[in-house]
Each structure stands twice: as structure tokens, then as C-alpha cells.
Design brief:
Elements: H1 4-9, H2 11-21, H3 27-57, H4 65-96, E1 116-121, H5 131-137, E2 141-142, H6 143-150, E3 156-157, H7 159-178, E4 182-185, E5 189-191, H8 192-197, E6 218-220, H9 225-229, E7 235-238, E8 244-253, E9 272-282, H10 287-304, E10 309-313, E11 325-333, E12 338-347, H11 351-356, E13 358-361, E14 367-369, E15 371-379, H12 380-391
Parallel strand pairs: 4-8, 7-13
Antiparallel strand pairs: 1-10, 2-3, 5-6, 8-9, 9-15, 10-11, 11-12, 12-15, 13-14
């Protein structure tokens, strides 16, 4: 969420940035509502002051009928005005949470096709094995029974593929721990306040990807980013404790498995998967450097696995509401002969921290909002796709990258 004062002082910038992100909102209407809120607040404060004055005069003796009558009238007016204030405050809040974060100057403008490649690594393979056909042939995945118990795009991992998933987690965890991240398991559900605070506001109600719990103020998380964002909610962190780095492991739940126009085969896009997520709380002046650090860790992980990839700077029209800038890493799929998303990392500046009220107390006593960043270390279901496409052999075995062998009993193949 953006500060309404910032929006007023940078109206043209905020309006242009929202338009570039593809958000059709009338920011002037939001500011008009905020003007109305401030006017009503002034009236409410005046009535409260007068109410206290009247109450003070009533002490120590019998009040006059005129004073009693005035007290009644103030009470009635105040109740009405406070109701108006609550109503307009909700309008303002709902309006402000629809305004996306402002993009950085180096973010490409335009839609998804305008994203810019910034680097490549590795040699692209010319042939590979389809992961679903391979995993089914070895009885390593069972989508049929997954659908029987939970519906389409749910699955069971078995034997070698389940063991490989665990090895990938342990490998990714070893990497992030070496970079100073604190490992955490997190709740698989969050409240609506945390969900909204993360900025996961779809452009329309039809685009919501979250599973909601009927009768509860809870939703299943789509990423560990959500509970990690809420970890320090309503807290003030001392400056000398920042930056804080967390690595959250969780199941992730998303309705998007059948997203139109996206590659959805097998494990690539499913309703439930496990993921190791990196997250940082930091000072505003640290966030750009930390964004590059998170990207470097992602690259280190995938270079260690020997997977060719490219990094792209995501265009404004493909950014979500919270991000001021986002990098995607795309691995080269030898099966589809194209790059496909494997990880991402975003700098959300103070957008999430403001909504979740996460602040820092500077050494001089000043209090301000922190910056938050997130990045995927290992998306495990998708990582299994990558491993099979790149390491299945002609003999039907799966070659194990050297970095994973310590977590598979030293085996060189499965």
C-alpha cells in the first residue's frame, strides 16, 4: 500500500505507473474520498472536544437543562459523524489498496513481450525427455489417484521422484543457509489482513488464485512469502538488527493450474506444490543491493545444478501490485525448445511493510517503514520437471547432478 501523502505529492507518477502495470483505477476519486474523510475527521474531533468540555462542566454540581440538552445533541451528532467517518475511511482504505506500487525507472514498459533479457548462462541442450511420460513410466508420479482424492492437477510423488524432491530441498536449503538466511517452516494459512498486506490483489475478482476457507477469515497460502510478510506485522525493528533474511519452506496452493495460454503439462503448473522461499526485511537504502543478492543466490543454485537459464527484467505490464521491480529466471527446456519460468525475485520497497505495519526505529529515534523483498530458491515440483528434462538418460535412468548426490546416499543415478 502506498502512503496517501506520497500519492498526492506524486500524482502524475503514481497514475502513470498504475496505468503501465495495467490497473484501471481513478486515483483522483480516491484522493477526493480522502479529502472527505479528513473533513469529517475534523468535525468528529471538534465534537469530541466539545463533548469533553461539556462533561467537565457537569462535574461538581447540578448541570443546567441547557447543558444537559447540549450534551445529548453532541452525543447524537458525534455518533452520526463517527459512523460517516467509519464508512468513508473504509472507502479510502479499499481505494488505496487497489493502487499498485510505483515501478523503478529501469523497469521496461509494456506487456509481457516487452520484458528484457539481462543475462544468460549455460549451453542449451537440443534434446530432452518429457517429464510426465518419463515419471509415469517409472511409476514415480500418480495424477490419476491424486485426482481421485482431491481433483484434477493434484498428484502423488513416489519413490525416486519423492526422494529427488527431498534432495533438491536439502540442496537449496544448504545454499540459503550459507548466505545467512534463517530457516523457517510457516503456517499454510493466513488471514485476510496478511493476504491484503502482501498486495495480492487481483485486477479483477475473477483473477483470484487463492483458496479460501469457508466460514473462516483464512486463505491457503500461494507462497511462503505471505506468512513471512506477516511475521513482523505491527512490530518496530531496531535499525542495527536489519537486514533480516528468512528462508521459508511451505506447501503452496493455487487455483491457476489451468491458466489459459500458459504451459501446464504435468508437474509444471499444479494446484499444490512445495517451495523454498527467500525473504528479506531491510532498510530502504539497502533494498536494491539485496535484490541483486537474492538474484545471485538463485543463479548460484541453478548453476550448481548445471541448468541453462536466462534472467529477464520483467516489464511493467507483467508486474503484480507489490513489486517495484522483478527478475524472472527462465530455464531452457530442451523438450519445448524455449525458455520457461523457474524462479523470480521482487523488490516490493515499503509497499507490503506499510500495509502490514512493519517499521524500523533508526538510531536517531526516527521511525519509518522497512523494505521487503522475496525470491524463490527452489520451486520443487517445477524443479523436478527441469531435472527430468535435463538428466534422464537414453537407458531410462536419471543421472544425479553431483551437488545432489550427498542427499541421495551418494547415488549417481536413480
Amino acid at each position: 500500500m502506498l502512503d496517501v501523502k506520497f500519492i498526492r505529492e506524486n500524482l502524475e507518477l503514481v497514475t502513470k505507473s498504475a496505468k503501465e502495470k495495467g490497473y484501471n483505477i481513478d486515483i483522483r476519486e480516491i484522493l477526493k474520498a480522502d479529502d472527505e474523510r479528513k473533513a469529517i475527521l475534523t468535525e468528529v474531533e471538534g465534537l469530541r472536544t466539545r463533548r469533553n468540555e461539556v462533561a467537565s462542566k457537569m462535574k461538581g454540581g447540578k448541570p443546567s437543562p441547557e447543558l444537559i440538552q447540549e450534551g445529548r445533541e453532541i452525543k447524537e451528532k458525534l455518533a452520526a459523524k463517527e459512523a460517516e467517518l467509519d464508512k468513508i475511511s473504509e472507502v479510502c482504505y479499499n481505494g488505496l489498496k487497489r493502487v499498485p506500487n510505483v515501478i523503478f525507472e529501469d523497469v521496461p514498459l509494456g506487456g509481457e513481450e516487452c520484458s528484457v533479457e539481462v543475462k544468460k548462462w549455460g549451453e542449451n541442450h537440443t534434446s530432452g525427455v518429457d517429464h510426465l511420460d518419463y515419471a509415469v513410466s517409472r511409476d514415480w508420479v500418480d495424477f490419476e489417484r491424486g485426482a481421485k482424492v482431491a481433483g484434477a492437477k493434484f498428484y502423488y510423488l513416489k519413490d525416486g521422484l519423492a526422494l529427488l524432491e527431498n534432495a533438491l530441498l536439502q540442496y537449496g536449503l544448504s545454499k540459503v543457509l550459507a548466505h545467512g538466511f534463517t530457516y523457517m517452516t510457516v503456517p499454510d494459512m493466513v488471514s485476510s489482513r496478511v493476504l491484503e498486506g502482501c498486495g495480492f490483489n487481483p485486477r479483477s475478482s475473477e483473477q483470484s488464485d487463492e483458496y479460501y476457507i469457508e466460514g473462516e477469515d483464512l486463505a491457503m497460502i500461494a507462497t511462503a512469502e505471505m506468512p513471512l510478510t506477516g511475521y513482523h506485522m505491527d512490530e518496530i525493528i531496531d535499525e542495527d538488527k536489519l537486514p533480516l533474511f528468512y528462508a521459508g519452506y511451505s506447501a503452496c496452493f493455487r487455483k491457476e493450474a489451468g491458466t489459459y495460454g500458459k504451459y501446464t503439462r504435468g508437474l509444471f503448473r499444479v494446484h499444490q506444490f512445495n517451495k523454498l522461499e527467500m525473504y528479506a526485511f531491510c532498510l530502504p537504502e539497502q533494498s536494491k543491493e539485496i535484490h541483486e543478492k537474492i538474484l545471485a543466490i538463485e543463479e548460484e543454485i541453478w548453476q550448481g545444478l548445471g541448468i541453462p537459464y536466462r534472467v529477464i527484467n520483467i516489464a511493467a505490464g507483467d508486474l503484480g501490485a507489490p513489486a517495484a521491480k522483478k527478475y524472472d529466471m527462465e530455464y531452457w527446456s530442451p523438450v519445448n525448445q524455449k525458455y520457461q519460468e523457474i524462479t523470480s525475485c521482487s523488490n516490493c520497497t515499503d509497499f507490503q511493510a506499510r500495509a502490514c505495519n512493519v517499521r524500523v526505529r533508526r538510531k536517531d529515534g526516527k521511525v519509518e517503514f522497512v523494505h521487503t523483498l522475496n525470491g524463490t530458491a527452489i520451486p520443487l515440483a517445477r524443479a523436478l520437471v527441469v531435472m527430468i528434462e535435463n538428466y534422464a538418460t537414453e537407458g531410462g535412468k536419471l543421472k544425479i547432478p553431483e551437488v545432489l548426490r550427498p542427499y541421495l546416499g551418494g547415488k549417481e543415478e536413480l
